[in-house]
Amino acid sequence: METRNCLECSDRLIGRIDKKFCSDSCRTSYHNKNNGIEIQSIRFIDSRLKRNRKILMDCFLEQNVFDSQIELRKILKKGFVFDFHTHIEKMPNGIEYQFCYEFGYSQLGENQIHLIKQQPY
Ligand SMILES: [Zn+2]
Predict the structure, then answer these.
(1) How many other C-beta atoms can be found within 10 angstroms of the C-beta atom of residue 102?
(2) Which residues of the chain form beta strands (DSSP E)?
(3) 20 CA → ligand 1 middle, Å
(4) 24 in helix, strand or coil?
(5) Distance of CA 43 from the midpoint of ligand 1 (Å)
(6) First to last CA, the chain
(7) H-type helices in the chain, by residue range?
(8) Does 20 map to a domain?
(9) Cα dihedral 66/68/71/76 (nearest 10)
(10) Is position 21 within any domain?
(11) Structural domain count, the chain
(12) Residue 30 CA, ligand 1 centroid: distance in Å
């Protein structure tokens, strides 16, 4: 018979074939750990999305308009990370904008982006 071991403490498992843990405490600590990793990665992505949103918002506030062109390097300098956005929407003008929450951007040429703010849902 195949030997199976507890997923948490690696102790040998005795009993039912579908058993994965030697005890309730091992089951609990295994699941807590995995939830912790999940929460960590959610936090990591959330913090980047929120930072991106804040950078776009700051650019709007600086320009004091809700439809503006800004230099790409300006948001990069502030720490904007293009990999993180919440959704993509095609605007009536046919151009796709990537959004960080209510702020969207699309690239205009090499050095400029166009920023828009979406009305709340
Ligand atoms: Zn165990």
Answers:
(1) 15
(2) 67-71, 87-90, 96-100, 103-108, 112-117
(3) 9
(4) helix
(5) 29
(6) 59
(7) 24-63, 72-77
(8) no
(9) 30
(10) no
(11) 1
(12) 9
Domain assignment of residue 54, given as a range: 49-117
**pLDDT single digits (tens) 39-84:** 888 899 999 999 999 999 998 888 766 568 888 999 999 999 999 9
Determine, yes or no, domain membership for 13: no
Q: How far is the CA of 21 from the centre of ligand 1 (A)?
A: 5
pLDDT at res. 82: 93
**pLDDT value at residue 1:** 61
Residue labelled with tokens 């990591």: 44
Angle at 72 between CA 101 and CA 105, to 5 degrees: 30
Report if residue 74 sits inside a domain.
Answer: yes
State the chain's mean pLDDT as an integer. 89
